[in-house]
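Much of our argument rests on the idea that a fold can be written as discrete symbols. Part of our work consisted of pairing the sequence of a single chain with a tokenised description of its backbone. The amino acid sequence and the backbone structure tokens for this protein are reproduced below.
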Amino acid sequence: MLKEVSTPGKLDTYPWRNLSRLYRETDLWTYNGKTTTWQQATERLELFKTKSESITKKFKMEDSKLVFDQFIKLNHDTIVLKQFYSINQTALYMILSNHDKDTKLNACEGLPCFVSTDFFSDSINKCITYEITNDLLGIIPDPEKYSCPICQELAYKPIRLNCNHLFCLKCLIKAQKKNLDNCPVCRAKDAVKNATSKNLDKKLLNILTTDFPREIRAR
């Protein structure tokens, strides 16, 4: 259903793109490279809900409201799952600690990964982050995915160099005029210098024209 309300051309396409960007910026599951605790995730979900209010008010499709509520519930249920694993890990550690005292077997030392407070949560977090961020939100076309690395805007009239890096036509022309011959991303020799109209990615141009009409008009 998310695809149905966020597909290019739908009334709520752009609100959903803004929500997708806001969700990624909220860092619900990871922060500064570290996995968030279920308490931190709860706080960040509330922050996301608060900031998203101004966006969801722009919904024009009833299904969008339903999908958004389901999306929030999915995240809430996931946090509850993280909490469940956290509680169980604490209980496991206490059981093994008491067992060590009674038997002197040092089970906590022998099974450090299982009694680590991050073992289960890290594994779950990676799966959750991938599923939500890539599989779910990946449905929503993201203009940043097609941005020119020089101007950081949508690479309209996209030129794909021989090294496969993508640039907008304007930036490529400017680079050639300045005699910047190599790819500014990977330094592939003469990749910019040798680029011609044949390097225009026509298939991608059609996708950009269809999926990002506002951004195209702005260019």
About this structure: Residues 62-103 form the longest helix (42 residues). The chain is about 60% helix and 5% strand.
